[in-house]
Amino acid sequence: MRKDARVEDLLRELAPRVLGALVRRHGNFDDCEDAVQEALLAAAVQWPAQGVPQNPQGWLITVASRRMTDQIRSEVARRRREDETAAQVPDEESVAPAADDEPASGEDDTLTLLFMCCHPALSAASQVALTLRAVGGLTTAEIARAFLVPEATMAQRVSRAKRSIKSSGIPFRMPPENERADRLRVVLHVLYLIFNEGYTASSGPDLQRGELTAEAIRLTRAVHGLLPDDGEVAGLLSLMLLTDARRPARTRPDGALIPLAEQDRQRWDQDSIREGVELITDTLSRSPIGPYQLQAAIAAVHDEAERAEETDWPQIEALYEVLERVSDNPMVTLNRAVAVAMVQGPQAGLDLLETLDADGRLAEHHRLEAVRAHLLEMTGDYAAARSGYRTAARLTTSLPEQRYLEARAARLGEDR
Amino acid sequence: MKYMLLIYDNPDTREIMSGERGEGLMAEMRDLMEEITESGELVGTEALADPSNARTVRERDGVPAVTDGPYAEAKEHLGGYLVVDCESLERATEIAARFPNARFSEMGAMEVRPIMGQNGTEM
Predict the structure, then answer these.
(1) A108 pLDDT exceeds 60?
(2) Which chain B residues contact residue A397 at CB under 8 A?
(3) Secondary structure of chain A: what % helix, strand, coil (to 5)?
């Protein structure tokens, strides 16, 4: 069904515009979303065989509207049977309008829909599911496969999200100016979650999950197109491009993880790197700085080193220091400790980890123990490093990470 | 994040659940199951047959040796499980805490275990 890539791309692009047009006309997001999904499915079946209609957006709006009208009609008929007095339904509600009587505001609709799907009243899982379906045009089955849950579970998340939107009376329009910045942060976080879910999946049988990164990049690119002056949107897009560029090199064919320092940099995607570097360079020169921009800048420094030994660690250390100031996150400190170790030596990094031990938020976190083991290995204290890797392997809930950490520990045990 | 909630029963648990007191508890369980189904958190759940139906298999001297009964010789036994996909360990614990097994010491206990995932970050 999804074989024709051109049709698929077109449908994904049109999905939020069609939904936007329908919601503005009928007002009922929940039913409109179902109707659009049905129209997209019909198009995915018909267009590859019969050709794409001249006005694909109009075609989708017409088909979806017809579904809405059918629904309203059968609802009216039901009510009529139940209640004789319910016969007074305005005519325009039961007649499908012509396809092209909507102003062409499809692009703004994409953004309005994103804000709606990422409403703070929804759980993160619901925000992700609804965004992929309503804005991304993916089916519930596709989203369920990507997140490794049964389709019924994902369907519940989607319908719960739609019910929440209905019950909290969230209107289909842009949030007020004074809320927009905060709401945009939520949108970016949801896009980041989608990207990360795809990026951190191991290769092989999970390739389908990798499509999530492409979808996250596509959606973020769309937001960047609509808000080209927002530095954090550009920063997130750049971060995604610079991170995704390393994907071909980050795992072995069997799914085993390869650390950054040991990756075959020939396999990094140079086009993505070029685009990401240009984007972040341009953005940093004209926008107020933010966490996504800083993370993109760090990724750019890594990506620009042709060999691991050429990495500009002093610059990375400086960038982490700024990032630490703008975001209170112990993970940032943990990453800074690696940079500090590379610049000032492993003991300085280990000293910094002690502040994290005192902080407590990363207590029992496998990454803290993994970094500690790595720095201990750099100092030559192999026994302590080995036991650190083993502790980290016990704490992680990721199979590829566990394999990697066990292998590090075993390597120290055998060679020295 | 996915968690498995292991339901540990006591020898008395089933008797309590099928008695008068069990009716209210069963209704509460149904409410809970409905809630986590509706929220999109429930991934799957199964109840296990009584441990008297269990067989334990161990290879001994190259030959599979089969014995009747469960592997762990404890008073409590695994009565069933749920897999939930939820926001945090705290939420998974909250769900577990609502099972009668967790609430009443004479009915066993619940165990919450994170499920290993295939996602990972290079270090």
Answers:
(1) yes
(2) 1, 114-117
(3) 75, 0, 25
Model confidence pLDDT, tens digit, residues A111-127 = 899 999 998 888 889 99
Other C-beta atoms closer than 10 Å to the C-beta of A205 total 10
Whether B104 is in a domain gets the answer yes
pTM for the full predicted model: 0.87
Contacting residues of A for B87, CB less than 8 Å apart: 123-125
Containing domain of residue B72, as a range?
2-114
Find all residues with CB under 8 Å of B17, minimum gap 6, and list them.
B25, B26, B100
Q: Do B43 and A157 touch (CB under 8 A)?
A: no
Does the residue B86 lie in any domain?
Answer: yes
Per-residue pLDDT tens digits for B1-29 = 999 999 999 988 988 888 898 999 999 99
A372: nearest Cα among B123, B121, B116, B114:
B123
What is the spatial distance between Cα A263 and Cα A44, in angstroms, rounded to a whole number?
A: 39
From the list A123, A153, A396, which residue is nearest B42 (CB)? Answer: A153
| Domain total in chain B | 1
The Cα of B21 is separated from the nearest Cα of chain A by a number of Å equal to 31
Asked if residue B121 is part of any domain, the answer here is no
- Look up the CATH number of the domain holding residue B57: 3.30.70.1060
Q: d(Cα A227, Cα A108) in Å, to the nearest integer?
A: 10
